[in-house]
Amino acid sequence: MSTVIFHTERLSVRPFEPADAVAAFAMWADPEVCRFTGDEPPRDIEVIVADIPRWQAVAERGPGCGFWAVTTHDGVFVGDVYVRPAGGPAGDHEVGWHLARPCWGRGYATELAIGAMAHARRGGIERLVALIHPDHAASRRVAEKAGMSFEGLSDRYDPDDPPVAVFAAPPAAAAGS
């Protein structure tokens, strides 16, 4: 079992392991999970097996960064959460989350967003943003509940894709970090 990166009240966040492939595939194969991501559901579990080393490598992007598996404290797979360079303005880091559909509506996403931002701050990351499909009302609410503010629609993070709704965390000093 991997080392836990951080805990929230109800959840444990840790690096992905090969054993997570089945649960991650079940989550990502759900078209509703992929609805606002711009990704197609994976065609088979081998896609997820190949993704896990790439997810693990996000931690090499710097302190506070990672793409992690999320479970309940008793080990039930919930989804994933990540902090990674955003690809736009220098220094911006994206915080994001994906949950298996049976875990929707329980407040897990907000709990994860807050926990991931705190972890990123401990790693020295200053500017955190959530890049959300403009029509994804549930994720927009999560960002707001996590203390992030809507900055507007922008394509500055990926000019080849449609604009996303950018939500920014308050500066570290204002966030109490």
Concise overview:
The protein has 177 residues and is an alpha+beta fold. The chain is 30% helix and 27% strand. The protein has helices spanning 21-28, 31-34, 45-57, 108-122, 137-145, 172-175; strands at residues 6-7, 11-15, 66-72, 77-85, 92-99, 127-132, 149-154, 164-168.
Shape: globular
Distance between the termini: 30 Å
- The SSE order reads EEHHHEEEHEHEEH
Structural class: alpha+beta
Enumerate the spans where pLDDT stays under 50 for 5 or more consecutive residues.
none
Strand order of the largest sheet: 1-2-3-4-5-6-8-7
Q: How would you describe what is shown here?
A:
The protein has helices at residues 21-28, 31-34, 45-57, 108-122, 137-145, 172-175, and strands at residues 6-7, 11-15, 66-72, 77-85, 92-99, 127-132, 149-154, 164-168. The chain is built from six helices and eight strands. The two termini are 30 Å apart. The longest helix is centred in the middle third of the chain and has 15 residues, at 108-122. Helix 1 (21-28) crosses helix 3 (45-57). It is of the alpha+beta class and 177 residues long. 30% of the residues lie in helices and 27% in strands. A hairpin with a 4-residue loop joins strand 3 (66-72) and strand 4. An eight-stranded mixed β-sheet has the order 1-2-3-4-5-6-8-7, with helices on both faces.
Present the secondary structure layout:
Layout: E1 6-7, E2 11-15, H1 21-28, H2 31-34, H3 45-57, E3 66-72, E4 77-85, E5 92-99, H4 108-122, E6 127-132, H5 137-145, E7 149-154, E8 164-168, H6 172-175
Parallel strand pairs: 5-6
Antiparallel strand pairs: 1-2, 2-3, 3-4, 4-5, 6-8, 7-8
Helix pairs in contact: 1-3
